[in-house]
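ok so for the tutorial part 2 we go from a plain amino acid sequence to predicted structure tokens. step 1 is just haveing the sequence, like this:
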Amino acid sequence: MMSRVRNPLVVSCVFLWVGFVCAISFMEAWLKFQAPGLTLPVGLGIGRLVFKALNQIEWVFAIAIVLNFVVRRIRRANNKMIFLVIPLMILTVQTLELLPELDARALKAIQGGVLEPSYMHTVYIVLEAVKVISLLIFGSTLFLQPRHKVVPTEPQH
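step 2 — the prediction. this is what the tokens look like for a chain of 157 residues:
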């Protein structure tokens, strides 16, 4: 028996969001530096463009999800909604704090500047992992349990 989906648009946005983050943050970000002949400044320049685009796409997904709840007037807050709130909070922190700082560091490195050690990349990666796990949990709550038909049983003598 197949599961039913409570809200197909939200399910699509959640799992596409997860796919984008996993493809960019957990694969492209480090893999591009394995390319032969790619210099650090070029790699950082590509990274700046890709992560800016990823951030914008993430906001499209986040806004689509939130607007869907608003338009459908879904007001029932439940404990599962925390798994949507967490990624929204992380995305906000990344947009307002982490990405600008990482972008400034990348620009400084591209221009040949010396960078002091920083833990910002580690924080970003940890937050990406928490975001993905939260979105996966939230997305899984959007599937309804299949309805089971009640089959009468024969009385035993």
